[in-house]
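Researcher: Please generate the 3D structure of the following complex. Treat every line as part of one assembly.
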Amino acid sequence: MDEWKPNPAIKPHKKRSWYLAWKYKLMNQRALRKLCQTGAVLFLLVTVIVNIKLILDTRRAAYEEEEESAQDYDDEMLNVEVPRHPVSNKKVLDVEVYSSRSKVYVAVDGTTVLEDEAREQGRGIHVIVLNQATGHVMAKRVFDTYSPHEDEAMVLFLNMVARGRILIFTIKDEGSFHLKDTAKNVLKSLGSQVAPFLSWRDMWTFVGKKGGEVYGEKHAKSPALSTWGDPVLLKTEVHLTSVEDAECRWPDTELNHRRKRFCSKVEGYGSVCSCKDPTPIEFNPDPLKDNKVFDVPVAVIAGNRPNYLYRMLRSLLSAQGVNPQMITVFIDGYYEEPMDVVELFGLSGIQHTPISIKNARVSQHYKASLTATFNLFPDAKFAVVLEEDLDISVDFFSFLSQSIHLLEEDESLYCVSAWNDQGYEHTAEDPSLLYRVETMPGLGWVLRKSLYKDELEPKWPTPEKLWDWDMWMRMPEQRKGRECIIPDVSRSYHFGIVGLNMNGYFHEAYFKKHKFNTVPNVQLKNVESLRKDAYEAEIHRLLGEAEVLDHSKNACEDSFVPDTEGRVYVMFIRMEQEADFTTWTQLAKCLHIWDLDVRGNHKGLWRLFRKKNHFLVVGVPASPYSSKKPSSVTPIYIEPPAKEEGAVA
Amino acid sequence: MQKINKNVVLALLSLTSLVFLLFQLYYYKFYLSQKNGAVFSKVRGSQSGQDSTRWHVVRKFLGLISSHNIPVYLIDPLILGLVDKDIEQIRSSPDGPSPECKYFCAPRDFTTFALLDKTWKHEVGLFRTAEKMGFQWLKILNKDPRLDGMDDLSGIEIPLHYIFKLASHAIHLVVFYERSGNYLWHGPLRLKQHMDRKFVPFRKLHFGRYPGAYEKPELLLVSIDDLKVQIPKNPSSFLEEMSHSRFLECRYREARAFFQLYPDDASVDAVEFRKKAKSLLHLAALTLNNLGVKFWLSSGTCLGWYRQCNVIPHSKDVDLGVFIKDYKADIIPAFQKAGLPLKHKFGKVEDSLELSFQGEDDVKLDIFFFYEEDDHIWNGGTQAKSGKKFKYLFPKFTLCWTEFVELKVHVPCETRQYVEANYGPDWKVPVKTWDWKSSPSNVQYNGVWPVNEWDDVIQIY
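Model: Done. Output below.
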């Protein structure tokens, strides 16, 4: 058809011939033929005109559209896009690893990913895990293998790292003293030649791929007991693999997208990232019938302990009646890894710029988190407050659902808490039993919005006051004589060993043997009797039926309580006035329960279990229940040992 | 033979060019229709000017969201306007088939729906399905205003608007959030730099120029043009509400800067006063809203909102403004019934009216009535002992919504001019001694009340 593209030059001629065609039409056949010819040409002409019009119209329309492009709707802040790092096609990473007495560092492609020259800190073996495809740091750990048991933690960690990852090791100061054979063998299996012979104050660096090649190893032996090996600097190259090789082939689902993102960023979470049969990240626990806390927001207060947060969220999302939409994780600081954990579970997380230091920082973080929670859920009357180092019992929400109406109706209540300070393996027994106590236990509790908004928020300790928020909340100015409801058997378990006020010894002594409910769907039995007046009646009934123990015996001895089950016993201790806890503290000490300050009391009465018997302790004469003491009984007094300061958590 | 051949060739060529021309015409028409919105052949509505594309797109969209159990409701002002005219009929016959396409066939670029944030779970699946159905979609995110007051929290960005485009029609889905103060809020629509500015003609959107505040609407399920949709139960009041729904966020950043310079008073007295002022304001708002009297934060209370997003602890009273045209005689008995006795009444409805009510423990509620003139607005003051009158002048203003102490209230949209008129250019500096007769920079002496009127215009209880 191209040859039919009309030549504008012949236009006038054609027009004339069209006119002539009419003239000739009647005369001869040739005219008809010519007419057809002309007609065809004309058609083509029109086509061209239409074509041109089309082009013009399209142009104009496009131009108009451009004009219209919503200037009003432009973001005022011209947020300059931070140029993303160009995707490096480089297949080789330069790795530098330095080991010495006082300093370690690791640089990948010139970027320092680890640098530690702080004094008296960071002793032991530093481990860095890199993604074999991207070279990104996925985990950073230090195991103080100079101290006992740290090597076990390291073995555990190394076993969790996926095959193919790049591992970098370097020793600061000393890393061999408690490095046992098991750990040495694991290092040997990674390809280290030196690890089995590492000894006192040796310097050592090693780079290798898990289950694969070794990229380099350097070692400097310590010449004598009193001196360190010479610093060693290892420079080596690591060949990157393709992204496909570094990822697992999980089915293409929404959940696995989250999993993939998580697993390509961080390491050390074990089976959640295993290629074959990974642990689920969605739990779908049974819903609760008549769940009264389904719409109650849950605030998870977190710091930079992502492994704890991971464990905590798993247990929280497995609890019956949980509503993931109501959960918000508040992270104190701009830490990436806790946020990765939050995203793995598809929850929402909010980061909080740290304000102030130490306890005040925690306290400010609490305030911001609570305020934000009530802002985000303006309808909520309550909020559940959890911390990142708690396991949540399977019936946590069931417990709250059955008891939360008390908090709404009974003005004399301060909170409902899932934690019994005195609920140890040997002192707690009945998961369906609740108490009223004057102390606020925290560790998984429900806060009333009106209490927070009207009383606590306006006078929350300011950043310069280095107060613990929980200690502040326990102060009489805040508590105003109100009480908390707690279960006999705790619905949360405090597993955190590292923390601001926490260390291994402290945890072992006070938290490890805490009783934790594992029975689902416990029906609470005395909920209505927890109301202010009903509870007094309940206590009087209990004291009425309680058998008075033999006060001539030693209260600390096991034989103090008869070898029975299911009975109610009462003992009387000396308590001169309301704040006299001398004997109680000594008793708490010998019973191996919380003795650092007074917890779990209600008007000079403590309730716990001994040998599966309900065991009541009444402080005489301060407690109003003293009247129940038979006149023949002399309250027990235990002399405190010579003055000794104990830390208070 | 030759002749015939030539003729045949010519005829063939003509035919080809005719086909070509037809194709061009068709294409041109197709292009035009895409511009104006009619890609589908007119299946419904034989009348000219009707456009079934829109109807089809809306139907597809409603199918999409109902397959994901997402409850949306129609807030398109143009359709609601039409619906409102026939509301009785629509209500009475919720299921009747409609004879003609009346509402969803007028050719428009957009149909607007609303979504309550808390009623869906942000499933990504929705968008996958939408894509499979042929929709292109755009999500507009921005900062979460509920956390905006808290500088040190880096909230997640939240979705404020979605646009689903299919062929020549687009669905604008506005996300509403519940906020403290029991109201719904939607955000402004602001395009980020990398976004496609030509995705849809954004200028023609009915929502998104400003953020807006609304009451929670009651919904009604109706069938219009054979489509089942939820609409606000009372479309006309929704449209009325929409016409002045503009919302102003408190200036949290400036407020923080202010507190850096002048640390907040955290004394017991200040905490107590704030608590009382807050509950007084809540009570006043409840009372006036029940009467249907529009009011706004004025004087010191307005300054507190504008400058520090909080009640000024040393202000000792709560100040509200009301246009005199909204005055109702019921105001005084209503407040009395609410437990706030009249403390004094100055002026009269025609001139310089001012009411004061006694709140709990010396916290006073002042209601100033504002008189509109051609080029300014003023309210009056009266000195009780001398009968002197004062006049406070303000530039003209309109009212916007804001959130203050967990309450949705009005403030003048042109707040800065309002505050500056009252407190002068140094309003940023806290002043503890304030004389309402001389300190304001907009005060004018306005004569003296005639002595024979004093009993009426100066009432003190």
